[in-house]
Design goal:
The structure is a single chain. By secondary structure, this protein is an alpha+beta fold. The chain is built from six helices and 13 strands. The strands form two sheets. Strands 1, 2, 3, 5, 6, 7, 10 and 11 form an eight-stranded mixed sheet that branches. A five-stranded mixed sheet has the order 4-13-12-8-9, with no helix packed on it. The chain is globular. The termini are far apart.
Length: 258
C-alpha cells in the first residue's frame, strides 16, 4: 500500500477474521501490507475497533534497556490488551488448533486512577494500584510472526493472544524487580531469567509508553493494565498442560489447551 491509497480497514478485517476463526496467515497480501510502522499502528487501531471489545490496557514488546537504546533489530512496540483475553491465575488458555505459542513472564501494572501523560509527571505512589506477576501468551495471526516484518507484526497487535495475571508483587517507585523469574511446565523448569540489559526493567519500560502517550496526547484510564515485557527467555511451546510462572515467591498458574 502506498500512502495515497492506504486503507487500514481492509487488512484489519482480514486479521480480525483470522483472530476469530483461528486461521493462520502466511502474510498479508501485498496490496494490504503495511510498509511503515505508522501504517502498522493504523491497522492495529482498526483491528481493535473491528474486534469491538474496547481496550483493557497495553503490552510492550522489545522494551528492555537494550531495546530502548536501539540495539535490537527492531524498535520497541506496543499492542492493545483485549478485554476477553485478560485472565486470572487458574485459567485455561485455548490456543487455535495446531498452533503453538510463545510464553513470557512479565510484570503487569494496574493504574489506580485516570492519568494524562502529557499533563502529568509519572508518580507510582499515586498512579499505580498494583503490580502482579503475569504471563503473556503470544500467538500471532501469522504462521511466522518473525518473518513478516515489524510493520505487519505491529498490525497484528504485536502478536497478543492472552495475558494471565497472578499474585501481587511488592514494589517501590523505580523498583527493578530483580528476583529470579522462571516458567515451569508440569513441574519442569522451561525458562530462566534474562540477565543484564536484555531483561526488562518494568518501570523503565512503562516510561517508554508514558512518553509515547504524552506525544500522542493519549490518556490511560483507571483500572487499565500495562504489561511491560519479558523478564525470562521467551519460550516457544506446543504442549498442552499445566504452566506456572514465578517472580521470587509470587506466582501465576494456568493451563494451555489446544
Amino acid at each position: 500500500m502506498n500512502n495515497a491509497v492506504f486503507d487500514p480497514t481492509i487488512p484489519a478485517n482480514r486479521l480480525a477474521s483470522a483472530s476469530r476463526n483461528g486461521m493462520a496467515l502466511k502474510e498479508l497480501p501485498e496490496a494490504e501490507r503495511p510498509k511503515t510502522l505508522e501504517q502498522g499502528y493504523a491497522i492495529q487501531a482498526s483491528l481493535v475497533e473491528t474486534l469491538g471489545e474496547g481496550v483493557a490496557g497495553w503490552k510492550l514488546a522489545g522494551a528492555s534497556p537494550r531495546g530502548l537504546r536501539g540495539e535490537l533489530p527492531n524498535p520497541p512496540a506496543t499492542g492493545v490488551l483485549i478485554p476477553s483475553r485478560m485472565l486470572r491465575s487458574g485459567a485455561v488458555v485455548q490456543l487455535p488448533p495446531g498452533r503453538g505459542a510463545t510464553l513470557e513472564v512479565e510484570v503487569a501494572f494496574c493504574f489506580s486512577r485516570s492519568v494524562s501523560p502529557g499533563d502529568e509527571v509519572f508518580d507510582a505512589a499515586s498512579m499505580i494500584k498494583s503490580a502482579t506477576v503475569a504471563v503473556e501468551v503470544v500467538c500471532s495471526r501469522f504462521v511466522d510472526r518473525k518473518s513478516v516484518g515489524q510493520p505487519s507484526f505491529i498490525a497484528d497487535n504485536a502478536g497478543f493472544h492472552a495475558l494471565i495475571r497472578g499474585d501481587e508483587l511488592s514494589y517501590a517507585d523505580g523498583s527493578l524487580f530483580t528476583d529470579d523469574a522462571g516458567l515451569w511446565w508440569n513441574g519442569a523448569r522451561i525458562a530462566n531469567s534474562l540477565t543484564g540489559d536484555d531483561r526488562t526493567r518494568p518501570f523503565l519500560s512503562l516510561g517508554f509508553l508514558w512518553e509515547k502517550f504524552a506525544r500522542q496526547e493519549s490518556k490511560i484510564a483507571e483500572g487499565a493494565i500495562v504489561t511491560t515485557g519479558t523478564l525470562t527467555v521467551p519460550v516457544d511451546v506446543t504442549q498442552a498442560g499445566n504452566y506456572e510462572a514465578r517472580i521470587g515467591g509470587a506466582g501465576v498458574a494456568f493451563t494451555l489447551a489446544s
